[in-house]
Write a structure and sequence with these properties.
By secondary structure, the protein is of the alpha/beta class. The chain has 8 helices and 10 strands.
Length: about 300
């Protein structure tokens, strides 16, 4: 297949949740991450003229497209005029992302406090990214091919309450041949590690917060910019040990050993005679049967 008919779609999911510990302690971190993401996005577009880009902001109440804007998804948008000799497309990407993110933050501030629960809706953002990828693939003309992947940049912790949504997204991405990459800024995320391992993507955690901007620019450009087909020829960081623990459906906590419903495969940390998911009734487990000892016959 000719190179000019092959396109590469990159969907970046940026976690903009103000409740992240990293953002609360260092308010300028989000600005540095945005600078790195914009530089990385422009580098992706610069590699090939047929490359495509989408950027989503994952917030506490919603997930929205920063680029292309929702009103322009799938349509041709007028380019902004260049400034200081910058390429028009780069100017358009930077201005659009900054303006839409600013509007999102303002709307969230006007909505009032979010309360004690401030989880990032990462599972929903990944589902939106997969839907966008599927729609663009359906719009491709005959003979064209598009390689799609998703990059998540987040500093949030694991959310066991979104376990089922995560699993549905991971296996859907695997079926659609979509690679999931994750750049964790704060702590290890076991569920997203599973997603990277299932889809054949890369998981990387930033080890030091000092010089975060320089590290992000170096790591994102070197590790996440090459496409999955090229990564086999590069020397990349060694794979991390994946934590494949599942979250129970009753308390939404990661467990090592639990009970699994034989009908709907729901997982519970304690035995329940009735499955709360499919309402199947089970028998109460009794004591394990013990083998009776054979009496020895005495020979007279």
């Amino acid at each position: 297949m000719n190179e000019e008919v092959e396109a590469s779609l990159l969907v970046i999911v940026l976690d903009t949740n103000p409740g992240q510990r990293l953002v609360r302690e260092r308010t300028h971190i989000l600005t540095q991450c945005l600078e790195s993401v914009i530089a990385f996005a422009n580098s992706h577009l610069m590699l090939k003229s047929t490359n495509k880009l989408a950027v989503l902001a994952c917030h506490t109440r919603s997930t929205e497209f920063l680029f292309p804007p929702p009103s322009a998804c799938g349509t041709q948008v007028a380019m902004l005029r260049q400034q200081d000799g910058q390429y028009e497309l780069f100017t358009h990407v930077e201005k659009t992302i900054r303006q839409n993110l600013q509007q999102l933050v303002i709307r969230d501030a006007r909505s009032g406090p979010i309360g004690s629960v401030c989880e990032s809706l990462l599972a929903g953002a990944l589902a939106m990214a997969l839907c966008y990828i599927h729609r663009l693939e359906q719009e491709l003309s005959a003979g064209r091919k598009m390689n799609s992947r998703i990059l998540v940049v987040t500093g949030s912790a694991d959310s066991a309450s979104q376990y089922m949504s995560y699993m549905n997204v991971f296996f859907t991405a695997q079926k659609q041949n979509v690679t999931l990459d994750v750049c964790s800024l704060d702590r290890d995320m076991g569920l997203l590690q599973q997603g990277c391992d299932i889809t054949g993507g890369l998981y990387l955690r930033i080890p030091q917060l000092q010089g975060l901007l320089q590290y992000l620019l170096h790591v994102i450009q070197w590790v996440f910019l090459p496409e999955p087909t090229i990564r086999k020829q590069l020397v990349l960081p060694p794979p991390v040990k994946v934590d494949y623990r599942a979250a129970c459906f009753c308390h939404r906590e990661l467990i090592d050993i639990g009970y699994v419903c034989s009908v709907c495969l729901s997982i519970f940390c304690k035995f329940s005679p009735i499955c709360t998911t499919c309402h199947t009734v089970f028998k109460t487990p009794g004591p394990l049967p013990t083998k009776s000892k054979k009496k020895k016959i005495k020979l007279s």
